[in-house]
Amino acid sequence: MAPRHHDPVTVGKYLVSPIIRLLDNGWYACSVSIRSGRGQQTTDRVLRLTRLFRDAVTAADYALAEGLQWIVGTRGAVRPA
Q: Which superkingdom is the protein from (predicted)?
């Protein structure tokens, strides 16, 4: 089955979009897209998550939470000069 996208959330300069996919065994897998920038300067990171879920809503909630956690970790990172 094709991946389904759920409502994205904007956090500062980031657009966080959970993506879920129904597997053949009836479980749901999830990923999260974290996009920033505009036009030719757009960067889109996709985190592929390994947990499986019994329902789509829980999978989407988990993906969104992981994306938000990634943003928090990125904002706190020390960047080289």
A: Bacteria
pLDDT tens, 35-49?
998 888 899 999 999
Residue 52 sits at φ, ψ, to 5 deg, of: -115, 155
How many other C-beta atoms are found inside a 10 Å radius of the C-beta of residue 13? 10
Strands, E assignment, the chain: 4-5, 9-11, 14-22, 28-36, 43-53
Domain positions in the chain are: 4-75
Q: Identify the segments of the chain with pLDDT beneath 70.
A: 1-5, 75-81
Count of C-beta atoms within a 10 Å radius of residue 4: 14
Distance CA 57, CA 49 (A): 15
